[in-house]
Amino acid sequence: MIQDSGPARFMTALLSAFFITSATFLPFVVKSTVASPLAIPQPNPYAGPEPRPLPNPQAGLPLVDGLYPDPEPCRGNCSWIHDPSIWYEDGTYWRFSTSGNIAVATAPSLGGPWRYEGALLQNGTSILVVDGQDIWAPSVTKRGDTYYCHYSVSRFGLQNSLIGVATSRSLEPGSWQDHGSVGLPLSHKYNLIDPFVFQETPGSPIFFTFGSFWQDIFQVELFPDDDITAFGDWAYQNGRIINIIRNDTKNALVVEGAIMYKEKDFYYLFYSVGHCCRTPETGLASDNQVYHVVVCRSETPKGPFYDRSGRSCLEANGGTTILASHGDVYAPGGQGVMVHPENGRTVMYYHYVRPSVGYGANDFFFGYNYLDWEDGWPVVAVA
């Protein structure tokens, strides 16, 4: 059994465009627990992403374009993939991704062939945030014999998102029970999307990470046996919601989708920075503002986190870029990190756009690369 370290995390670049003009971006503070709304099943937006051939299928080893290698080859259902979360169990890779009431796919290898299996929440979520909402950024983990899928409920341009959770004794679509909101309160400081659970051992504290834009990435430290389906009120009442990553420079880029990974003596936070989802029609971001993946590390899961140059990732806008646009790979992000169960190497997986295909939501592809470790820092490598 291999636990995914990702999840990683779909956030629209329309945030920036709407930030000044949209009333939904006004600070919204609620200093009490947010209860789950009444159960209102949401329709499945589509039957599931359909596999389609790539105009230029990847084959063989990835090519190196400048600093970064291309993604490893992917076969089958590899498009319309946002914010993937991977779990490996008994010879099968399970992939969970944004939209479609959390799209579920399986494959015999990380490179496929991937097959769409159905929606994780076949009747939608019991959380109602707003009409036209979607379910984003699933993150799957396992405790004992129960699987947990934390997810976000939101819509482009909203800050009053909520984080929910579903559980299952198997990973199969149709087996998941939705528990609604975990109870984290709304705040003007953060947006409740991009959840991630890290627990080093069954007896270790649980670190629940979330956040996008505003003051960026937050963390809740829980006790080893705490219920991760309903902890928000306790976390708020006990001052456990802590800011751990922030970029507060003028015109700061979006920071979101943090996941934690342990390698030897350090704890690494991988997260996405920049504008992920602009198109030529809406105006592509400038080169230095396009979505990319950065990393910071700490000697403890609680921080403080620093980048490779020694800058604080909370107080000095730190963050070391490890993957950015190159060649026909544009705006990589929504990443996760895991140990490859077949060869023991570290793998980072993510979504990305192929400009040769298009920039639409259905033009986001699943990609992955191996990571090597140089002087205690991850470097994207050719297989």
Verbal overview:
The protein is mainly β and 383 residues long. The chain has one domain: Tachylectin-2, Chain A. Helices cover 3% and strands 36% of the residues. The chain has 2 helices and 22 strands. It has helices at residues 14-18, 232-237, and strands at residues 64-65, 68-69, 85-89, 92-97, 103-107, 115-119, 134-143, 146-154, 162-168, 177-181, 196-198, 206-210, 217-222, 241-245, 255-263, 266-273, 292-298, 320-323, 330-339, 346-353, 364-374, 377-381. Strands 3-4-5-6 form a 4-stranded antiparallel beta sheet, with no helix packed on it. The protein has a 4-stranded antiparallel beta sheet with strand order 7-8-9-10, with no helix packed on it. A hairpin with a 5-residue loop joins strand 4 (92-97) and strand 5. The two termini are 23 Å apart. Residues 1-65 have low confidence and may be disordered.
